[in-house]
Specification:
By secondary structure, the chain is mostly helical. The chain has 48 helices and ten strands. Strands 4-3-6-9 form a four-stranded antiparallel sheet. A three-stranded mixed sheet has the order 5-1-10. Strand 3 and strand 4 form a beta hairpin. Helix 18 runs antiparallel to helix 19, helix 36 runs antiparallel to helix 37 and helix 38 runs parallel beside helix 42. Keywords: Signal.
């Protein structure tokens, strides 16, 4: 019976959790619908963020709720008006009691309950507590309510009337017993007990739970018993203990003394703490948060008490006389609180000066911290998946800053999802390893410990649903963890985990092939990364597994029913495009391994994959027709790479002409680089033809240089330059040939002239000459680029051409020519009159000009053009929708124009943000949200506001950019205004991503004009000087960055050596 009941409870809990994102509220949430309202609290101390729901006791249909408790543990659930309460059990799953134990109690994975039969006639004062859970367990396992009440009251040595009491209100021995019940239950859960952690407990003769098996609880139990002996309220004892510790820490920092042992000090401290608790008005002070430190610092500073002498002086009663009745204290002790409020002055002994460690600590423990602002977002959500997403990112940020003692508790106690905890602990291990290698301050055991905890959780998640349902996320997580183990030198652990992953893949491929493609791509990306870093041993682990999995990829949907010959050849209805695609990606990895490391076994593996590919293409005609693109992009180039020119050429001859161009580029590169046959390479380039002359020239120039669409795809010249100076002469031959093609190509079309002769032409050639240090040739090509730019027709294309040329001159260090090109680009844009060109095109013209100014460091010009760009963008909708479209109701372009306008305004805002013009940026974003109601299609509006559905945040959406501008509340409001829970959650995640991504010195600068370097992250006043350096940065790293510590972090003219509010501009 018990086993059946707990299966039912588990299913109920999972159901409630899956629905918790769809509705429900905490104590002050949405108004309940018609029916019986059940309201009350989940308590030991108040249990915050517990999911509450009611379910029929027999496990049949009848789920009511769920809702999520607020910070005081309050909830409201509505059940049908005619329901018999005797048939319902109320459940509370998970949550956090922030006031019990030294650091609060986490009820993750635990369920408390209460039979609603206990509350007939008292539906507005329902209590779910450890005591009601004991009653509920007996009832669930077959006892009558009367018998269960009698049994539990007897065990606890309390009257039956007290079983429904609120522990925090009843106090005394009763509250002490519920606290100990929670301590024992959470300890049992931590040790992996099966079933309910509250079931099967034993009690002493005085009704206290037996803690003999849990020596780790001895200290907490002693504190509770001590409070009883002194007549103190058990519910306050841990909070009082923590506040006292914070009080002595602050006073010790300012005036080290033994006075804390003075009885007079203890008496006064007890009085002050009592006044603080009274002023809190019942609002819980969460022990795992910074609230205790925050409130103590604020009270002492406001009272003018900095030293033990003042605390023990005659003026003490007067100095603290205001505390008990103060109304601000309740607002300070939020569940997510920072240690430092930047508006409150530091004590004299806390001034930051140029102490990097102090600066780090102050920033990350203050309400200025981007991670604190992200963590505050969890107060706006009632969805564990969003909560976990935010907190995992916060923990990662803390770990990267070296705050491991703050990061690990977040992962251990505040994140519900096993997956997010596993990911977070793996990333924690990675950060620990980096600190170990750079500073030597972390032990190998600590690094491995984090990885082992991550491994345990990954496996727990995988095995909870079965290895047959192993998916790409699981594969990616395990691959990253295997790499972590290997990077840490733990080869045996890495090999064991690799074996486990292969077991999972084997089990999955037998029964659930839907995840195969994503796992193959995941492995391909990992292998590519290893190849790029030269790690042959790691990269070689993957193609064999990829090959086995690719052969298991099932057929696609039925082929085109109109395929010729369908009736005569049954094979045409089978369609294996996907299988061929993944086999070709496997072939590519083998080819890359052979090209980089030369082992003949890789060539053999590539040929083996090719044989399977060709058999499929020969057997199934429709598959052959639909896989030419894959052959051209990856298959044939890989065959050239392994030296199978004959096969590659035969395949090339069978391709459509549009695909042969790509193959010829790869073949030519192979001849030039591997074969050192420049004449042969140029002969292959000459084979590239196209019906459009401009496309033919563009493809040929790309083949001779590098791919314009993806500069990582190196062709002849770029590949030769990468080989080293001994191949420069050959690279020059390729560039001269490309130059000749450009010299002879002519066109009157402005767009074609810009794209062929400037963007993909002379500017590209100048860049490659510059890589070889050939300054004369670099300058000559820039002269040609500028000449073409000035003759380009059409304002948009001329502006882009001049901007690209300016970038080229910047690379040469010729600032006068940079300035001249940008000046003429500005004149060109300003000469266009509204109405002469499409409004979107006009806005785009200023966009390119703005980006060029910003990229090249012209701050004032970039800001000025950003204003013009935003003004032009604001006209896109009104000037593009014609009178005829309005009159006829042809609104097809309506929403697209609104979205285009919004996207352009967001781009302008981003540039203003980069230059610290936050108010101007915020105003632009306000104008975007103002158009929300004008959209006809919610989908377009949602994409603009919170981005498209994706595993990563859309950095171009409105809420992300609002957060970048510091307008976090507006960002959250914009997300909430969408009304649909999934869209709100997507928006909150985007806001969190914006905050946790914050980096004023990005390694890949997009909108920041500041120096790029990993040694720094935060620049509060935007002057290009960091508030602090990474704890991983050595003096040599800092010197190499060229950065110096900001002497005045907030830019208010008061140096940090004397500024008591160093991050708040006075």
């Amino acid at each position: 019976m018990k086993h059946v009941m707990w299966i039912r409870l588990f299913l109920a809990a999972v159901t409630a959790l899956s629905l918790s994102a769809c509705g429900g509220s905490g104590g002050g949430g949405a108004a309940p619908g018609p029916g019986i309202t059940l309201s009350g609290v989940v308590e030991d101390g108040p249990v915050f963020k517990s999911t509450v729901y009611a379910l029929n006791r027999d496990g049949s249909d009848g789920l009511y709720g769920p809702c999520v408790t607020d910070e005081k543990g309050r909830f409201t659930v509505t059940v049908d008006a005619g329901v018999d309460l005797k048939s319902l059990m109320l459940f509370a799953r998970g949550g956090k009691d922030g006031t019990t134990g030294p650091d609060g109690l986490n009820f993750r994975g635990m369920v408390m309950m209460a039979p609603l039969e206990m509350y007939e006639g008292k539906t507005r004062s329902v209590v779910v507590s450890p005591v009601t859970t004991l009653v509920g367990l007996d009832v669930a396992n077959g006892s009558s309510l009367s018998a269960a009440r009698t049994a539990v009251a007897g065990m606890l040595k309390v009257s039956e009337e007290k079983l429904t009491a609120r522990p925090s209100v009843e106090g005394g021995h009763f509250h002490a017993k519920t606290m100990m019940l929670s301590l024992v239950a959470t300890a049992r859960r931590t040790k992996g007990c099966k079933g309910s952690a509250f079931e099967g407990l034993t009690f002493s003769v005085d009704g206290l739970p037996d803690t003999t098996d849990h020596p780790e609880l001895d200290e907490a139990v002693a504190v509770i018993k001590g409070a009883l002996e002194r007549g103190q309220a058990p519910g306050e004892v841990f909070v009082r203990q923590r506040l006292l510790s914070c009080l002595t820490d602050v006073l010790d920092a300012n005036s080290p003394s033994s006075s804390k042992e003075d009885p007079a000090f203890k008496t006064r401290a007890s009085r002050l703490i009592g006044d603080i608790l009274a002023a809190a008005g019942g609002r819980p002070i969460h022990l795992e948060s910074m609230a205790p430190e925050r409130v103590i610092r604020w009270v002492l500073r406001t009272s003018g008490i900095e030293t033990y002498d003042t605390f023990l002086g005659d003026t003490f009663p007067v100095l603290i006389g205001w505390v008990r009745d103060n109304t601000e204290i309740a607002s300070i002790i939020t569940p997510v609180a920072s240690k430092y409020n930047i508006r409150e002055p530091l004590f004299a002994g806390e001034l930051l000066g140029d102490d990097n460690a102090k600066r780090l600590d102050y920033y990350f423990n203050s309400d200025a911290s981007h991670l604190y602002k992200a963590e505050k977002l969890i107060e706006t959500v009632r969805d564990d998946t969003v909560n976990d997403y935010i907190l995992e990112r916060v923990a990662l940020g803390l770990a990267e800053a070296g705050f491991f003692s703050e990061a690990e508790p977040i992962l251990d106690t505040k994140i519900f999802s096993t997956w997010y905890r596993a990911e977070g602990l793996r990333r924690l291990g990675k950060s620990l390893l980096e600190f170990k290698e750079r500073t030597g301050s972390i032990s190998q055991e600590t690094v491995v410990g984090a990885f082992e905890k991550s491994e345990f959780l990954y496996k727990k998640k995988i095995e909870s649903v079965g290895k047959a349902f192993f998916d790409d996320k699981d594969s990616s997580g395990l691959q990253c963890l295997i790499k972590g183990y290997r990077d840490a030198g733990e080869m045996d652990r890495a090999d064991t985990l690799t074996d486990y992953m292969e077991e999972c893949i084997a089990a999955m491929s037998e029964s659930n092939k839907s995840a195969l493609p994503r796992i193959i791509i995941s492995m391909e990306k990992t292998a590519e990364a290893y190849i790029e870093e030269g790690n042959e041993a790691q990269a070689a682990l993957y193609p064999g597994v990829m090959f086995a999995l690719a052969k298991e990829v099932p057929a696609d949907d039925a082929a085109n029913p109109d395929y010729p010959g369908k009736e005569d050849d049954p094979n045409v209805v089978d369609y294996y495009r996907s299988k061929v695609f993944y086999l070709i990606r496997t072939l590519e990895i083998y080819g890359s391994l052979y090209e980089n490391f030369g082992d003949a076994s890789y060539r053999a593996g590539a040929l083996k994959a090719y044989c399977v590919i060709e058999e499929l293409r020969d057997t199934y005609p429709f598959t052959a027709e639909k896989t030419e693109l894959y052959l051209a992009n990856w298959g044939i180039p890989s065959l050239f790479a392994i030296g199978e020119d004959g096969i590659a050429l035969a395949l090339t001859d069978g391709l459509a002409s549009k695909y042969r161009k790509k193959v010829y580029a790869s073949q030519a590169t192979s001849k030039a680089v591997a074969g050192e046959d420049m004449d042969g390479a140029f002969a292959v380039v000459d084979l590239i033809t196209d019906k459009d002359p401009e496309d033919e020239v563009a493809f040929k120039v790309d083949a001779l240089t590098y791919c314009a669409a993806n500069s990582k795809v190196k062709r002849i010249a770029a590949s030769l330059i990468a080989k080293g100076s001994h191949r420069y002469s050959h690279a020059v031959q390729a560039l001269e040939r490309a130059g000749g093609l450009l010299d002879t190509f002519t066109t009157d079309d402005g767009e074609i002239n810009y794209k062929i002769k400037v963007q993909r032409g002379y500017v590209k050639l100048a860049y490659l000459y510059g890589l070889m240090g050939k300054i004369a040739e670099q300058k000559a090509n820039l002269e040609k680029a500028e000449c073409q730019a000035r003759s380009t027709a059409g304002a948009l294309w001329k502006v882009q051409a001049l901007c690209d040329t300016a970038q080229g001159w910047h690379g040469l260090g010729n600032n006068s020519r940079v300035t001249l090109c940008l000046h003429d680009a500005r004149l060109t844009a300003d000469a266009v009159r509204e109405g002469e060109v499409d409004a979107t095109k006009l806005a785009e013209t200023y966009y390119w000009l703005m980006k060029a100014y910003e990229r090249l460091g012209y701050r004032e010009d970039a800001s000025e053009v950003a204003n013009i760009y935003s003004a032009k963008s604001g006209l896109i909708f009104d000037e593009s929708l014609t009178d005829d479209q309005w009159a006829t109701g042809s609104y097809g372009k309506h929403d697209k124009l609104l979205e285009d306008q919004g996207r352009n305004l967001i781009k302008a805002a981003k540039v203003l943000i980069a230059f610290e013009r936050l108010d101007n940026a915020e105003a632009l974003l306000d104008s975007v949200i103002a158009t929300k109601e004008a959209f006809y299609d919610d989908g377009e509006c949602v994409d603009l506001c919170v981005g498209k559905v994706s595993s990563t945040a859309d950095k171009g959406c409105l809420v992300y950019t609002y957060a970048c501008a510091g307008a976090v509340e507006k960002a959250v409001d914009a997300a909430r205004s969408l009304g649909v829970i999934s869209e709100i959650n997507r928006g909150v995640k985007a806001v969190a991503a914006s905050l946790t991504d914050r980096d004023h010195f990005p390694e890949k600068s997009t909108y920041s004009p500041k120096p790029e370097h990993w040694v720094a992250q935060v620049d509060t006043d935007g002057d290009g000087l960091p508030d602090f350096f990474s704890p991983l940065a050595s003096p040599e790293d800092i010197a190499a960055s060229g950065l110096t510590l900001d002497p005045d972090s907030d830019g208010d003219g008061i140096p940090d050596t004397t500024d008591t509010r160093p991050l708040y501009a006075d």
